[in-house]
Amino acid sequence: MSMSKLRWGILGCANIAIRACIPGIQNSETGVVTAIASRNLQKSKETAESLNIPTAYGTYEELLADPNVDAIYIPLPNHLHKEWTIRAAEAGKHVLCEKPASLTAAETEEMVAACEKAGVLFAEAFMYRHHPRYARVKEIIASGEIGEIRGIHAAFTFNNPDDAANVRFVKEMGGGSLYDVGCYPISAARMILGEEPEAVTTHAFFSPQHDNVDMMMSGLVEFSGGVALTFDCGMWADFRNTVEVLGTRGRIEIPSAFITPTEESGSFYVIGADGRREEQVPYLNQYALQADDIAYAAWGKKPMRFEPADAVKNMKVIDACLKSAEERSRIVLS
């Protein structure tokens, strides 16, 4: 493994890889993308040429066998995450797997165990967590400025119901708004509160037009001390991407909570006794920061920012949310 640059291989030509993760790695301090694979060789060649990637493969197996690849990014459909994470680990590659980690907590446990056995890293691609603005949010909360936390509300919705070929609308492939965007509010609340929830109750719109995946879900996630996350997520609703942390003496509003901040949209706001102030944050590419954190952990220079077990814990909440919506019941988490 090179210690000057972590050499990345990309399994698949998904939009998230082309639009965000590959450019992020290429703009990081530590990473270089050396290869990309698709089951369509022509597609991987065209993608490689457009993004200045040296090597293109027509199978995922060829990429995993490449000795010039240290780490794998997996942006494949959700139902393929488990298989290719385990195969990448067995090939001795570090793994960055697109969220959600898999279809169930049990699958994610298998993935983490395979990576531990192989002595490689496993990370779930919640890129927003690597931006320093969330460290600043937690710092403000810890200072007591907004008082005791009484609740968190988060929303992540977008409107794309007419894309008939979209894998998000295929149930057996892990489609649905909870998997695609609802996982973000759950992850954020767990991170901000620093604890695991006790129970969940959700209500969903399962669309017969979209293979009965959840096109919209609203939920209550209960934490200790009467604190809760209320959230909604959707793929057939107007765009929203927000987090609000409500305290006894103030609140924090994050207008663009998960999408990579731009120079205009990265700031957040603190509202309290002294009025409303803007907390300006630097424009930093979240995908590049994510790549750097993984590289430093792979080289043993820094610990992982988020342990693999975090992915299992997040999936346990997602499992419960899906079960609650399907059964129309409150689910207690062990």
From TrEMBL:
It holds the Pfam family GFO_IDH_MocA_C3. InterPro entries: Gfo/Idh/MocA-like_OxRdtase_N (IPR000683), Gfo/Idh/MocA_domain (IPR050984), GFO_IDH_MocA-like_dom (IPR055170), NAD(P)-bd_dom_sf (IPR036291). Residues 6-124 form the Gfo/Idh/MocA-like oxidoreductase N-terminal domain. The keyword Hydrolase does not apply. Keywords: Oxidoreductase. Residues 134-253 form the GFO/IDH/MocA-like oxidoreductase domain. Signal peptide: none annotated. Belongs to the Gfo/Idh/MocA family. This is Gfo/Idh/MocA family oxidoreductase. It comes from Paenibacillus hexagrammi. The lineage of its organism: Bacteria, Bacillati, Bacillota, Bacilli, Bacillales.
